[in-house]
């Protein structure tokens, strides 16, 4: 940014067409404005909610090598289609600082974050922490937006009441008895949702048990989905919803879902919304448009726990 500015002023002093160049520099600055690294100052100004309940912030976490070209294109495309949203990009270090500062009153959460053994566990946990503390939309880097703007994802009657929005990953075409888990590559939440806190607390408890037993499960990679991933997330949300209704939420209530369903303040999106490529509908099923596409680029079972 500073380089860009000094380049702008250098050219400004030299050329007679300086005005034109300054104009384009400003256009460029405005264009790149919504994409920037997350700074902690942002967290201090976001206390008062106005406008949409779910903040118009899309959260991304980049690895040590930063964005690859493809994921950067997907992000830019998403922002073009959603001009009122802004991207918040976290590096490993910003993620650590965020956890340290936002959860200063919960040392058990900080300790859990730092003791999770693999980057993939931390990336899972971080999304729940961010969505709890700040709210917005979590997006994995291998997710692209389809054409429906985010502001139109939910039926109008749900928009004002939704505090958490999840999409079914596997639903249709997998038989009746599969575990109907929610995708975690795209999750929307308003800040301070007790459902999100439940997921966080469950991971803290699980990590405490592991620590007390004195040994990590023999293959933590194979248990990622259960330990911090979609299964953990889905169970936590459903249990928290169960407490909210003084009962249990049966998966039957969202099996073979053909339109968004609201349970309390949680909206469950059908498989075609976030996970169109893995749900196989009958020709007679009336389905809506896909909202995001997951490219399964995260070959996450690698030696570095899923990051490049
Ligand atoms: C966060 O806190 C941990 C533990 O106290 C410390 O080791 C680490 O350096 C801190 N990280 C940042 C980025 O502040
Ligand atoms: C659940 O139980 C609590 C306390 O017993 C009560 O205050 C609350 O209204 C109940 N909620 C529902 C949805 O029945």
Kindly, what is the distance between the CA atoms of the first and last residues, rounded to a whole number of angstroms?
26 Å
Rg for CA atoms:
21 Å
Secondary structure category = alpha/beta
Task: Give me the oligomer status.
Answer: single chain
Strand line-up across the major sheet: 1-3-2-4-7-6-9-8
Content of β-strand: 5-15%
Please give the CATH architecture of the largest domain.
Alpha-Beta Complex
What percent of the residues sit in helical stretches (DSSP H or I)?
A: 40-55%
Q: Give the biggest sheet.
A: 8 strands, mixed
- Reading the helices and strands in chain order gives HHEHEHEHHHEEHEEHHHEEHE
Q: Helical region count?
A: 12
Secondary structure tally: strands? 10
* Low-pLDDT residue intervals, each spanning 5 or more residues: 1-13, 27-31, 44-50, 299-308
**CATH class call of the largest domain:** Alpha Beta
Q: How many discrete domains?
A: 2
CATH fold descriptor of the largest domain: Spore Coat Polysaccharide Biosynthesis Protein SpsA, Chain A
Average the pLDDT over all residues and give the rounded result. Answer: 85
Unique bound compounds: 2-acetamido-2-deoxy-beta-D-glucopyranose
Net shape: globular
């Amino acid at each position: 940014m500073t380089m860009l500015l000094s380049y702008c002023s250098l050219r400004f002093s030299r050329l007679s067409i300086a005005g034109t160049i300054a104009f384009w520099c400003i256009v460029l600055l405005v264009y790149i404005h919504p994409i920037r690294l997350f700074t902690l100052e942002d967290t201090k100004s976001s206390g008062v909610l106005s406008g949409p309940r779910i903040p118009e912030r899309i959260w991304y976490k980049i690895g040590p090598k930063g964005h690859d070209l493809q994921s950067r294109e997907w992000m830019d495309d998403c922002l073009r289609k959603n001009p009122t949203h802004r991207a918040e990009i976290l590096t490993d270090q910003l993620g650590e600082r965020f956890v340290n500062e936002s959860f200063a009153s919960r040392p058990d959460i900080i300790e859990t974050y730092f003791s999770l053994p693999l980057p993939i566990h931390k990336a899972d946990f971080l999304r729940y922490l961010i969505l709890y503390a700040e709210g917005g939309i979590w997006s994995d880097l291998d997710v692209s937006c389809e054409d429906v703007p985010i502001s139109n994802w939910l039926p109008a009657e749900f928009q004002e009441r939704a505090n958490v929005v999840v999409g079914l990953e596997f639903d249709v075409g997998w038989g009746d008895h599969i575990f109907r888990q929610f995708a975690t590559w795209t999750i929307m939440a308003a800040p301070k949702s007790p459902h999100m806190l439940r997921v966080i607390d469950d991971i803290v408890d699980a990590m405490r048990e592991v620590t007390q037993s004195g040994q990590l499960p023999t293959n933590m990679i194979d248990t990622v989905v259960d330990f911090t991933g979609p299964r953990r997330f889905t169970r936590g949300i459903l249990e928290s919803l169960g407490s909210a209704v003084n009962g249990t939420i049966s998966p039957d209530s969202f099996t073979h879902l053909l339109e968004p369903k609201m349970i309390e303040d949680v909206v469950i999106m059908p498989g075609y919304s976030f996970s169109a490529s893995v749900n196989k509908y009958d020709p007679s099923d009336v389905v809506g448009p896909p909202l995001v596409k997951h490219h399964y680029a995260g070959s996450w079972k690698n030696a570095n726990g899923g990051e490049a």
